[in-house]
Design a protein that fits this description.
A five-stranded antiparallel beta sheet has the order 4-5-1-6-7, with helices on one face. The relative contact order is 0.32. β4 and β5 form a beta hairpin. It is of the alpha+beta class. The chain has one domain: Alpha-Beta Plaits (2-Layer Sandwich), CATH 3.30.70. It contains two helices and seven strands; from the N terminus they run βαββββαββ. It holds the Pfam family Fer4_15. One of its GO terms (molecular function) is metal ion binding. InterPro entries: Fe-S_cluster_ET (IPR051269). This is Ferredoxin.
């Protein structure tokens, strides 16, 4: 499972931070940060989701009010949102 996070879309509500510890707050930017990720496009960050964190990652994506977080299965099919 893979997660993509669009930092430019993020509005800094930090609901994802409460759901999954891979997200942290960057109060200076007013944005969340996806830890241990790499930039795959301009402003879009991605990383693998560990098996034991899959549910947390899905909750983080579902709670994002602006759909800045997308979850994909191993075949690249979009799961959330």
């Amino acid at each position: 499972m893979q997660v993509e996070f669009d930092e430019d879309t993020c509005i800094g509500m930090f609901q994802c931070v409460a759901e999954w510890d891979a997200f942290t707050e960057d109060k200076s930017k007013g944005k969340a940060i996806l830890e241990d990720s790499e930039e795959v496009e301009d402003g879009v960050f991605a990383r693998e989701v560990p098996e034991d964190a899959e549910l947390d990652a899905k909750f983080a994506a579902r709670t994002c009010p602006v759909d800045a977080i997308t979850i994909y299965d191993d075949d690249g099919e979009q799961l959330v949102p």
